[in-house]
């Protein structure tokens, strides 16, 4: 028996791409083995024993090899050794050739339906590169780990390799480090020689799906001439691909499948895969819209939900809404999937499957793709693997030269960063397309990792139906013009095979057109009117969506103390860091009323209270567990143990028996993908508080597409409700341009139609109540919080247990000091940290005729509350807005209109702020302090 180490070495030798430089080393070992077997390491001894036995089994005296057959009868000694050594060299060369095809066979695969690109010469795929000649073709060699016969003539081995790796399927997987994954792929690809084998019945089904794909495009092209639809012509194999994927996934127990894609072929997928009624689509082409949305969106951005019958039962389908930012939907889909998996307790990702469809140019060029891939195997964002499908038009947007489209050989190369296997396939071979899809899905379901299907096809029309591609790609589009179409080619093939009768393919085409004329969908797997028992009921948030609805967010003091006790109850022998130990001790004192509550304690109490009420909580961001400003400490670390899963204690997971989940994630260093993920999560789970925290507020700049296209406008465009909370640390502390402003002005500019909430809490109690209100109020709108930095430890920015027990969130906090209202000459309105600077200046200067109010909710603006404040000071000659930000930033340009609406005719509006600036803040602390001092003083000057 070979030792385990010897078996592993044999596997490694047979499965590695042995370079020619290794041959002398192996030959030297073999020569030493021949002379004195025990002189080589045991694993090599076992390996060479195996080779010897294989030669003996092949025939007496190794008569099967050409080298031995040519050996002279008198050859002895050194000559005999040389002949044997030559045989072994060639055996190693054959193993090298096998592995070369595994690595590089894709370069010579028949992937281009247009035969537009000339295949490159790859020397490593030529037997001569390894010293193998035509004379060796009939020589029998060991095939190593090549699936099939253990020994075969070289010519047969070569034919097998070319058939497997250079046909209409090309595979990339040898960069994967996990041997089990590689072996699994080899068995599936080499075991079948990459040759699809389907029944005649299923081949007819594939043709029917191709006919549907082509039929819809041709119907729309003739009925709605010139209208943009981003046709899927040239990529018709996508529809049988998705059909097979859905049915196979359903048969494997998948209950929900969530799809994200840009607009290429989207209408085709909506109708032929998800079952949208053609009559409804035609209405949209005619300028009508079935849904009652505030604004709506173009038809090729619309999402859709349906259900299909599968061998495993009914499976729910959802196509995510998506703007023109092509790949931004990727993390949104992943977040939605994660939420659904969480709801179903689907920890491995067996019940909910994400499928992302990409364009070749966008997949390789847009950074959010890489960011999303990077989330795939992390604990807080993984979804059990995604099936990626590339609709590879070979042309991208308008470029036909890959040198201008990307810097990598293939558009899919970015997938290699997570070692995802890549299956390239010729879109003109629909059976091969279906086959690799089955392999890809099986890989994902077995190993729960991402997998990529790169369907190489073409784009029959231009970027859209009003484009003329011949202008920029004349030669390519001459080939496309001569291409009969994938459906026609496949129909001819099936007719030649006797699978279909003459005229049967055209009858399929006519039947589909008849269905289109009638406005009905011929897909018999669609289950109309299905209501899943696992679906979320959003009705309460639609019926009760009133902004001014009051809810009680306070808790009895006894309950607050009980929650505080749970938050500060640390396991025995758990050694805290001295600073954290001090914070925990202080929090115990806060619960006893010995110390006022700070922000970290109030925020943790808000989460604890929600958990006790039955709401799950999910927080993510860079350093969110500890808190960027060392304030949250939701995760405690044992100083004697460093491994996170062993040395961490999370008090919020121990609030009450049977409580829902509390999740806090120190996210990867990404804003765009992570915020997109959390938005997707929140749109699928209304009963969980979902919080994304920026390390500094302006870091959200890197996720502006998510904010503009989804968070601010998703409800208006698509009717998508979302209760996501964005915490954006904001405040001018002299830390320079990039660590001061969360760009408050950008969020206020996006405010309209009551789409989002923008709040600037100035006390711990306000933070407690606004977080509680976000879940307890039957309203799901995004909440943008300008959260504090220096205020986290400001001696006056504190609250009491009574503030949490008796209060609620105050959109406006009136003047808190005792002033004679009849004596007030000015009312200063402000928000955030500047309030404490204003109060300090007023005390220092002993000013008693200026009232200061805090506007804690900037949008929707609390008009009634503000009117009360204006009427409180009947002799105030003016109202002044004070802010830290420059005049062209912050709230000034938005807030002035609200203030003017409530001012009396005899009042004037003034302001105190930094001068308008191209930069958010100065970079020098001394200059910052001078500006701050000046603007605070300006707020109290007699004249404005």
TrEMBL record:
Its cofactor is thiamine diphosphate. It catalyses: N(6)-[(R)-lipoyl]-L-lysyl-[protein] + 2-oxoglutarate + H(+) = N(6)-[(R)-S(8)-succinyldihydrolipoyl]-L-lysyl-[protein] + CO2. GO terms for biological process: glycolytic process; tricarboxylic acid cycle. It comes from the Bacteria. GO terms for molecular function: oxoglutarate dehydrogenase (succinyl-transferring) activity; thiamine pyrophosphate binding. InterPro entries: 2-oxogl_dehyd_N, 2oxoglutarate_DH_E1, DH_E1, KGD_C_sf, ODO-1/KGD_C, THDP-binding, Transketolase-like_Pyr-bd. It is an enzyme of class 1 (oxidoreductase). Residues 597-794 form the Transketolase-like pyrimidine-binding domain. Keywords: Glycolysis, Oxidoreductase, Thiamine pyrophosphate. Its EC number is 1.2.4.2. GO terms for cellular component: cytosol; oxoglutarate dehydrogenase complex. Coiled coil: none annotated. Pfam families: 2-oxogl_dehyd_N (PF16078), E1_dh (PF00676), OxoGdeHyase_C (PF16870), Transket_pyr (PF02779). Belongs to the alpha-ketoglutarate dehydrogenase family. Homodimer. Part of the 2-oxoglutarate dehydrogenase (OGDH) complex composed of E1 (2-oxoglutarate dehydrogenase), E2 (dihydrolipoamide succinyltransferase) and E3 (dihydrolipoamide dehydrogenase); the complex contains multiple copies of the three enzymatic components (E1, E2 and E3). E1 component of the 2-oxoglutarate dehydrogenase (OGDH) complex which catalyzes the decarboxylation of 2-oxoglutarate, the first step in the conversion of 2-oxoglutarate to succinyl-CoA and CO(2). This is 2-oxoglutarate dehydrogenase E1 component. It comes from Nitrosovibrio tenuis.
């Amino acid at each position: 028996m070979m030792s385990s180490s010897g078996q592993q070495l044999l596997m490694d030798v047979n499965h590695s791409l042995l370079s020619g430089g290794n041959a002398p080393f192996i030959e030297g070992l073999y020569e030493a083995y021949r002379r004195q077997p025990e002189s080589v390491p045991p694993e090599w001894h076992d390996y060479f024993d195996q080779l010897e036995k294989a030669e003996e089994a092949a025939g007496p005296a190794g008569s099967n090899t050409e080298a031995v057959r040519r050996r002279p009868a008198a050859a002895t000694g050194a000559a005999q050794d040389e002949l044997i050594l030559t045989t072994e060299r060639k055996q190693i060369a054959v193993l090298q050739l096998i592995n070369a095809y595994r690595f590089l066979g894709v370069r010579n695969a028949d992937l281009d339906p247009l035969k537009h690109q000339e295949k490159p010469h790859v020397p490593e795929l030529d037997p001569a590169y390894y010293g193998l000649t035509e004379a060796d073709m009939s020589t029998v060699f060991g095939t190593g780990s090549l699936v099939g016969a253990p020994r075969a003539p070289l010519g047969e081995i070569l034919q097998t390799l070319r058939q497997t790796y250079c046909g209409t399927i090309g595979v990339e997987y040898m960069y994967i480090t996990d041997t089990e994954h590689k072996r699994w792929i080899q068995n599936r690809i080499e075991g079948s020689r990459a040759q699809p084998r389907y029944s005649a019945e299923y081949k007819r089904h594939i043709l029917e799906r191709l006919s549907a794909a082509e039929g819809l495009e041709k119907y729309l092209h003739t009925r709605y001439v010139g209208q943009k639809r981003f046709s899927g012509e040239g990529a018709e194999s996508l529809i049988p691909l998705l059909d097979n994927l859905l049915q196979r996934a359903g048969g494997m127990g998948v209950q929900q499948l969530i799809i994200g894609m840009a607009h290429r072929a989207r209408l085709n997928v909506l109708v032929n895969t998800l079952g949208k009624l053609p009559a409804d689509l035609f209405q949209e082409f005619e300028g009508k819209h079935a849904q009652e949305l505030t604004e709506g969106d173009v038809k090729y951005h619309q999402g859709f939900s349906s259900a299909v019958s599968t061998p495993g039962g009914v499976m729910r389908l959802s196509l995510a809404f998506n703007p023109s930012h092509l790949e931004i939907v990727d993390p949104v889909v992943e977040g939605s999937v994660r939420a659904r998996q969480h709801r179903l307790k689907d920890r491995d990702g067996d019940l909910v499957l994400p499928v992302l469809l990409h364009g070749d140019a966008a997949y390789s060029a847009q950074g959010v793709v890489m960011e999303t891939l990077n989330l795939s195997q992390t604990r807080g964002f993984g979804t059990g693997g995604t099936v990626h499908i590339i609709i590879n038009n070979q042309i991208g947007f308008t470029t036909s030269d890959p040198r201008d489209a990307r810097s990598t050989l293939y558009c899919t190369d970015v997938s290699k960063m997570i070692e995802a296997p890549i299956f390239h396939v010729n879109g003109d071979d629909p059976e091969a397309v279906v086959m690799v899809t089955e392999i890809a899905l099986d890989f994902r379901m077995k190993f729960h990792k991402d997998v990529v299907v790169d369907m190489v096809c073409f784009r029959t029309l231009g970027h859209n139906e009003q484009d003329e591609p011949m202008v920029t790609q004349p030669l390519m589009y001459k080939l496309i013009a001569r291409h009969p179409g994938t459906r026609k080619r496949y129909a001819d093939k099936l007719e030649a095979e006797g699978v279909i009768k003459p005229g049967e393919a055209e009858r399929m085409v006519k039947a589909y057109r008849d269905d289109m004329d009638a406005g009905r969908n011929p897909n018999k797997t669609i289950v109309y009117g299905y209501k899943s028992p696992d679906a979320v009921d959003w009705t309460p948030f639609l019926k009760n969506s009133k902004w001014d609805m009051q809810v009680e967010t306070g808790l009895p003091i006894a309950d607050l103390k009980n929650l505080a006790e749970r938050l500060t109850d640390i396991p025995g022998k758990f050694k805290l860091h001295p600073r954290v130990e001090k914070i925990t001790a202080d929090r115990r004192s806060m619960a006893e009323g010995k110390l006022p509550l700070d922000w970290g304690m109030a925020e943790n109490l808000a989460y604890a209270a929600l958990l006790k009420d039955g709401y799950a909580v999910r927080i993510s961001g860079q350093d969110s567990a500890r808190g960027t400003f060392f304030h949250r400490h939701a995760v405690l670390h044992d100083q004697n143990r460093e491994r996170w899963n062993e040395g961490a204690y999370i008090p919020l997971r121990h609030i009450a028996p049977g409580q829902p989940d509390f999740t806090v994630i120190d996210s990867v260093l990404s804003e765009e993908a992570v915020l997109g993920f959390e938005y997707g999560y929140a749109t699928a789970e209304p009963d969980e508080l979902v919080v994304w925290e920026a390390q500094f507020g302006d870091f959200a700049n890197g996720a502006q597409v998510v904010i503009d296209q989804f968070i601010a406008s998703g409800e208006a465009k698509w009717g998508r409700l979302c209760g996501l909370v964005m915490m954006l640390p904001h405040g001018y502390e002299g830390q320079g341009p990039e660590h001061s402003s969360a760009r408050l002005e950008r969020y206020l500019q996006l405010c309209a139609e009551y789409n989002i909430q923008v709040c600037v809490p100035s006390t711990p109690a306000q933070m407690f109540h606004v977080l509680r209100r976000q879940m307890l109020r039957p309203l799901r709108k995004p909440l943008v919080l300008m959260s504090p930095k220096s205020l986290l430890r400001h001696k006056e920015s504190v609250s009491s247990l009574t503030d949490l027990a008796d209060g609620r969130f105050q959109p406006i906090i009136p003047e808190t000091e005792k002033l004679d209202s009849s004596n007030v000459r000015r009312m200063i309105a402000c928000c955030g940290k500047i309030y404490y600077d204003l109060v300090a200046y007023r005390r220092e200067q002993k000013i008693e005729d200026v009232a200061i109010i805090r506007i804690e909710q900037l949008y929707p603006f609390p008009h009634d509350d503000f009117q009360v404040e204006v009427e409180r000071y009947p002799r105030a000659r003016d109202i002044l807005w004070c802010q830290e930000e420059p005049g062209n930033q912050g709230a000034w340009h938005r807030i002035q209109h609200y203030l003017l609406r409530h001012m009396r005719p005899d009042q004037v509006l003034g302001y105190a702020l930094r001068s308008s600036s191209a930069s958010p803040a100065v970079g020098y602390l001394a200059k910052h302090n001078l500006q701050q001092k000046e603007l605070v003083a300006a707020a109290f000057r007699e004249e404005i």
